Input
Amino acid sequence: MLCFLCVRNEAARLPHFLRHHRALGVRHFLAVDNASTDGTAALLGDQPDVSLWRTDASYKASRFGMDWLTWLQMRHGHGHWCLTLDADELLIYPYWQTRPLAALTDWLQDQGRDSFGALTVDMYPEGPVSQGQVSPEDDPIAHLAWFDAGNYLVQVQPRMRNLWIQGGVRTRVFFADRPRRAPTLNKIPLVRWNRRHAYVNSTHALLPPRLNQVYATDGGELTSGVLLHTKFLPGIAERSAEEKARAQHFGNAEQYAAYYDHLVESPVLHTRASTRYTGWRQMEALGLLSRGGWV
Amino acid sequence: MTLGVVMLCHTALERAAQLARHWAEHGCPVVLHVDARTPEAQVDRLHAALKDLPDIRFIPRLPCEWGTFGMVQATLDASTRMLADFPQVTHVLLASGSCLPIKPVRALQDHLAAHPTTDFIESVTTADVGWTIGGLNEERFTLRFPFNWKRQRRLFDGYVNLQRALGFRRELPQGLTPHLGSQWWCLTRPTLQAILTHPDRPRLDRYFRRVWIPDESYFQSLVRQVSTRIESRSLTLSKFDYQGRPYIFYDDHLHLLRQADAFVARKAWPQADLLYRTFLTPDGDRAFASEPSPGKINRLFAKAVERRVKGRPGLYMQSRFPNRARGGTLSAAPYGVFSGFSALFPDFQPWLSRALDARVHGHLFAFDRVQFAGDEPVFKGGLSDSPTLRDYNPRSFLANLIWNTRGETQCFQFGPEDEQAIAPTLAADPNASIFVITGAFAIPLWQSGRSAAEVRAEAARLQKVESDFVHLLNRPETKARTRLWSLAEFIENPTEPLEQLVDLLHPRAAHRVGALPQLVNLTGFGSFLQDLRNQGMAPVLMGDFPSDAELSQPSPPFARPRVVR
Output
């Protein structure tokens, strides 16, 4: 079980990120550090199970890091189940506390499936996003305990046969007036890799297209997971200011200026309609992930 | 009595070694067969791991491809060896390399000693089988299966269909009544002996070589000819998913397995350390106190299969997105859509909310804002009142609303003045109950105090939109329950329609008592309609609306408050 990630200034998230995914049974992390200035590289270099590559090249010009990772996957991923994540994503799936990823991938393989879908769920704190303190060793979900449970917008993209899901708190608060621009939340982070595979657009879609069929169309449910998204940790305001200045994100960085400006003001995302996270069983009851017949 | 174990292995041989040792150390001779396709090095390690045990035998390896006769041949060979090498054996259990004993071996031995002449083998006639996959049960015995089901699925299916079309049937060997059942059995020595020395065996074996999945039918059928006492159940717990693949037990199933009434469980995940540790340690016996509760296990697995196959209706998410034919137009629960009612009854919403014990929203699809009940800016589950967001994907908006509020009936107002993109979805949803008073859209126009000349264009536009909606609802494809009244028809006797809709949406509301909502005073509306006509518009959806003079006649249904049942 390999985990690929591309990071920039994630020293505050990595200790818990590594611990969480190690506990799931990731044997080795293959990380690309994109010119971090906060000691990320040193932190990763100190880990016994991390192989580190460093680059100062443009994140945007490398399709947001995907070109770097695709090369690593081609070289090292072939024949393995590979997890591709961002440092602010924590993968959970049915029974994740009691069954390692190998149990999940055995089950998927038995079912004849080579890929596994997960929904990104933006987690947020109760108060203003910049308030509070979370130490790198802490579980960030204790602070980011809230999420939007039932405002996800689903449509099919016929070209790649993948679903396009938007919604969650970012869509509700920052993109309500231009929903087309709202972030894509569906991901396919776990794939039984073949050197001929390639992620097309972040980890939202892959080639060949059959790997994007992580949903049932016959009324049934397939097994799926959730990526707990820890974006809204207290440093978010400063980070947003920096991201805006770097203009390295997404198709059209200017579209995101308003979004970053809003975040710099440290808004409260929590409302009376927010849901407090209690675990994967709750996520399943809410319909955000599914056991899909796995017992 | 002595129990012998025939063990068929192909992977995870370290576990197989552990299991064989467990059986052997509890006084059970073991005969092992390892699939010929398993790498030699692994098999050597297995031999080495067991070489200190005297009562272990290995038999020559055959390829055991799923669904083929190889598995039966291996079982026959191993059983022959068992009976020949271990004359003390009185019962033989067929197990796999991942069949974990979940009760003490002692308990199984006691059970068999108490039933010395009983054969424990699931054996059901093809007519009574409900579990087979691919719709094949009797045809397993009457068709030919030269193609591999897993690797050559299309050829397999095509050849089956061809034989069906041609009416091809194989002749059954004389005296054979096909029976099916779990592969994992426990037979007495005389029964097994009788099968192995069956006078017809060469012919039977030839026949079963061409039967599909013979490991589920060979012993299950032959046992009927030779056994004196059959208990048709397996002592091995095994559960299958909807495609017939066995479910795997993990560490977190420990509690569940303790409640099983079987003696062995198939199959345990090789890395389920806790399970192996608990059930294979000598004093693991202490872990078996629980009362058996097989019903609970059955329910759990039945529910899981249902979730995989049917899913949760009305849920649209990352791993469930049904197409139209498979429930893609269905929402999670019944809900009510009301058109024209709030124009006619100013306090309609609070009244409806009381009468139905439901959440009653305003115009959810209004152009300027989503009118959630109580004017919430963010509704349950994080639904925003932004009309832009709603109109970006109205189907998701509606599906989410109904999904998020399961357990509480939702109602909302909808009319020609609203955004109409959702209308086809409403009409196609079997869970929608749509009540329309056609023409009621004119009441607010009349109440606005503007002249007929001023509102004429607007009235014509609304009438066009509403008649499109009515047309949509009247199409044969419509799956929603619909009730339509013209305004004239409705005010003639408003009690009955109101009672009807309460009955429809809340059938158990019989005990509920409440006054009818107050009808708006319509004196003057008739002249307003006449004015519209005079302006050149043809207000038709209202029906034959009475003139003001007719309307002023006292009519009994309005005079007294009615009890709504």
Remarks:
- The CA atoms of residues 474 and 504 of chain B lie 19 Å apart.
- Chain B has two domains: 3-127+180-286, 330-559.
